[in-house]
Prior knowledge:
- The protein is an alpha+beta fold.
- The chain folds into two domains: 6-13 and 142-342, archaeoglobus fulgidus dsm 4304 superfamily (archaeoglobus fulgidus dsm 4304 fold), CATH 3.30.2170.10; 31-116, Winged helix-like DNA-binding domain superfamily/Winged helix DNA-binding domain (Arc Repressor Mutant, subunit A), CATH 1.10.10.
- The chain contains eleven helices and 13 strands.
- The strands form three sheets. The protein has a nine-stranded mixed sheet with strand order 7-6-5-8-9-13-12-11-10, sandwiched between helices.
Amino acid sequence: MAAMDLRQVADAFHERVPDLVDSLTKQMREVPSGSVATYGQLAQALGDTAASRWVATWLLEADCPLAEISHRVVRSTGEIGLHFSGDVSEKKRRLQNEGVVVSGGKVELGRFQVELPAIQAPLAALKAWQNEFVCPQAAPLDLNAVQTIGGLDVSYTGHQAVAVCSRFEADGTSPLGHASRCQEVRFPYVTGYLAFRELPLHLELLAQMQTEGTLPDLLLVDGNGRLHPRRMGIATMLGGLTGIPTIGIAKKKICGVMLADQLSPGVWEPIVEAKDQANDILGYTILPHAKTKHPLYVSIGHGIDSDEMQEVVSRSFAGHRSPEPIYAADRESRRIASTLATA
Length: 343
């Protein structure tokens, strides 16, 4: 169990997470009438082109505060793309009214694309934080001393998020109860940056559980651990911040190469960075049972070794695709989110 004050950890982390919407808003205000920027250009200004999809999605939201100037953002090909109104011709009309020539559904970027001013790119700062983050040395884990296992998951409804930690006995299949936390989401979903979207919720919830004396001895986290482009997925960062042993359980593979051509139920297959680096195992793929074609991607978070990780996860399967603590947290968070949506 973590010895540090998780209330202080949660507050310190919250202060370092930037307002990505505010940064994008400032960049958008630099695109004047008669000019365009591209989704990728704006994402690059934020520090990572991985944010291109979020930029495009956010600008399509009807309640986006930049909706009235969102027509000034086009695709990297010059294609004008979609518009929040649902009417592409409306986007074309607005561009032409501002003097931007649209021909064949495209804008000539060499003529109309604006050069954005340099800013302190928030995603670049977060990437550097992950690259530089050093997990404290963890004492060897004694699985026999683990009495409770928690599963962490988050569900969303609108701009609200519900984080749930479902507590189980050490066998991984005997439930003890749930703890939950609801709050507004401050950070969008950008591939590779899940930690900064969900860790504020997880840390608030774990601080609450620490106060209540219900903090689990080990956590299964919906997300990646070492199986991450910067080896610093949400499970690793959470473990390093809290001192709690963690395991990352992901449903999508965002990096690495699988060595196995085919998967057999219950067999742990390594994932490596490249096939010529087979000794550098980032995580494992496992098909939980024969009834599913969809594997899980499991990796060390913090404070646990590969053999212990496989033992804990294997004994937590009980017929569902996810280990029971994660499955329970997913169901409970969805249940609570549905009540918020109808309130």
